[in-house]
Specification:
This protein has four helices and two strands; from the N terminus they run ααββαα. The protein is α+β, with helices and mostly antiparallel strands. The protein has a two-stranded antiparallel ribbon. The radius of gyration is 17 Å and the shape is elongated. The N and C termini lie far apart (39 Å).
């Protein structure tokens, strides 16, 4: 058998991780997590230094309290 060597194009990978398509995919995942959390939660996305980043956070007082008491965001992330 012959051995196969794969060499990644670093610039191409960086462009992929920062692309608009990747941002759409990550935003869709973050929106799904925010929806599982219930009302009072929102998501946001931005392009960071090396890749697209998304976050889910509580925006209302009730949601903040709920997240502190029940770890709502963490549980929504673990949902299948």
């Amino acid at each position: 058998m012959s051995s196969i060597r794969i060499r990644l194009n670093s610039r191409g990978v960086t462009e992929l991780l920062k692309s608009e398509d990747m941002k759409k995919v990550c935003k869709a995942q973050a929106d799904a997590v925010a929806a599982r959390c219930g009302s009072g939660y929102e998501s946001d996305s931005y392009v960071g230094k090396s890749r697209v980043n998304c976050s889910v956070y509580p925006v209302t007082r009730k949601a903040r309290r709920d997240n502190l008491k029940n770890n709502t965001i963490l549980k929504a992330l673990k949902h299948d």
